[in-house]
Amino acid sequence: MEVFSPLTVETQTGILNVTIKNPTSKKFPPPLTFRKMFLKSLINIVEKYGSECSDDLVEEYSRILSEQVDDNEGYFSYKINEVDTITLQENTSFVAESTTGLQTWEASKYLSEWCIKNHFVLENKSILELGSGIGLLGITVLKFCSPSKYMFSDKSWAVLNKLAANIKINFENADNLPIEQHQLVWTTMNDEDAQRLLPDVILGADLVYDADMIESLVHALKTTLLNSSSCAYIANTIRNPETNEKFLNHLGAADLIYEELKTHEKDIFVYNKSSSFKMYKISKNKINCC
Fold first, then answer.
1. Which of 12, 43, 162, 199 has the fewest CB atoms within 10 Å, i.e. is most exposed?
2. CB 217 within 8 A of CB 145
3. Of 93, 88, 94, 91, whose CA–CA distance to 75 is shortest?
4. Which Gene3D superfamilies would you find in this protein's record (predicted)?
5. Each residue of 135-171: pLDDT tens digit?
């Protein structure tokens, strides 16, 4: 049985200072529901193991209970290392403003972590991200991988507008970044789009959650993999193995070559314990691809 020592007033103060009262958290507060849940859990632990709640903890909880804000809107800050934190404004509703792109999905964290650990693959490359969402993957690549150009894309202007705001949160020199934003609809992408974008590398995370979207996704991949040396890295959360298998079958039918990459250690982001991932390198030419 795990035993906790009583949490002293000093310990409670220390916990508050690195969480609710942390400067990043105060400037970019997480959703109200999350803050309430955290403080209530802390109070329960303090009381369960024989301590009294500090005045500071009680006051903080009372203050949050009185807040009146949109429960679904808030900021999430991802600590990458001792120096770097990525902060994103998100909406925790599964569907908000008619899109699923206003929150960070698990595979986006997984692919972001892979990019950090394999930054040399992306250095000085022109990169197109399909389904960028609110920007975790792209912001990570811009911070750690030194691309020559990064092209964010999504079908929703609401998502792209939120993404633009998140870029400004994370970069003081946002106007000078080598970035572009494109509204792309996979089903209508053509050779003209491919010539305009001309990426060296394509990235995509959590794009295979709906079996009905697979055909259009594969069409977009085949269209934009224009150069024989270009390739795509796609990370999928495995919710339904049959959906992932359908994706692979469509890749084969489109004469695209794919390779499943080895899993990497998940030690930067916090993940849902039930999440499992598969990641693929996709190209038209196995020999010369990036």
1. 43
2. no
3. 88
4. Vaccinia Virus protein VP39
5. 999 999 999 999 999 999 999 898 999 999 999 999 9
